[in-house]
Amino acid sequence: MERYLTIVTAVGAGVVGGVMFAFSTFIMTGLGRLEPAQGIAAMQAINREAPNFWFMTALFGTALTSIVLAVVSVVRHDGSAVYAVIACVLYLVGIALTVVYHVPHNNALDAIDPTAADSAAYWRDYVSGWTGWNHVRTVSAIAASAVLTWSATRG
């Protein structure tokens, strides 16, 4: 059972890492090249679509399986338990960033009028900060997936 839980969590972390990777490597760059009003409007539309069943299941379902896997790994404590726990913590760091940084910034962006005079300066800061912290989420999810995949092959 633990191996299947590890594989499911690894796949989930990989899916989430892929989404984050896309934002880090080309989506935010593309949005940042638009006129600020267009970039803001586009990101607002993306942010309104993001909390859908499939993405929330991948994002938070993997958080749930990470927590369960970490607990099971600690209880069983075999040779690869430490790697599973490290991977789960890595994934949960990205979730914490999502909840503490990205969601509040996305909500603040949603409240902005894209055509307002001060929106261009806010947009530049938003893109820079959001993307920088998204790189951390990307690395944490992909690293978690890699470590979990490695861990699943050890036992």
Summarize the structure.
The chain is built from five helices and no strands.
What would you say this structure looks like, in words?
The structure is a single chain. This protein is mostly helical and 155 residues long. It has one domain (2-154). The protein has helices at residues 2-33, 36-49, 53-76, 81-110, 119-154. Helix 1 (2-33) packs across helix 3 (53-76), helix 2 (36-49) packs across helix 5 and helix 4 (81-110) runs antiparallel to helix 5 (119-154). It is elongated and about 60 Å long.
Chain-wise SSE layout:
Elements: H1 2-33, H2 36-49, H3 53-76, H4 81-110, H5 119-154
Protein name: Integral membrane protein
Organism: Rhodococcus opacus M213
InterPro entries: Anthrone_oxy (IPR013901)
Question: Could you list some keywords that capture this structure?
Answer:
155 residues, mainly alpha, 5 helices, membrane, Integral membrane protein, transmembrane helix, Anthrone_oxy, transmembrane
